[in-house]
């Protein structure tokens, strides 16, 4: 399952990117949420592709 680690990785990457840009807590949460959603979609597609190859 690539889905759940992708969500966590996306959240952390989004949080760090917002922090580097000087965002406050709400900015960091927004970046983290958007990145988590994007990574979740990518992880879901990766999981489907891997399952279809077997």
Give an overview in words.
The chain is rod-shaped and about 45 Å long. The model has no long low-confidence stretch (mean pLDDT 96). The protein is 87% helix and 0% strand. The longest helix has 29 residues. The chain contains two helices and no strands. The protein has one domain. The chain has 54 residues and is mainly alpha-helical.
Blueprint (SSEs and pairs):
Blueprint: H1 3-20, H2 25-53
Helix pairs in contact: 1-2
Transmembrane segments: 28-50
Keywords: Membrane, Transmembrane, Transmembrane helix
Summarize, please:
Helix content is 87%, strand content 0%. It has 54 residues and is mainly alpha-helical.
Number of domains: 1
Pattern of helices and strands: HH
The helix fraction, in percent, is over 70%
Q: Which residues form runs of ≥5 with pLDDT under 50? A: none
What distance separates the N and C termini? 14 Å
Transmembrane segments: 28-50
Keywords: Membrane, Transmembrane, Transmembrane helix
Keywords, please?
rod-shaped; 2 helices; mainly alpha; 87% helix; 54 residues
């Amino acid at each position: 399952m690539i889905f759940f680690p992708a969500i966590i990785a996306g959240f952390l990457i989004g949080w760090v990117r917002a922090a580097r840009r000087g965002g406050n807590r709400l900015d960091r949460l927004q970046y983290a949420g958007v990145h988590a959603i994007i990574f979740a979609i990518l992880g879901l597609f990766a999981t489907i592709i891997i399952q279809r190859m077997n």
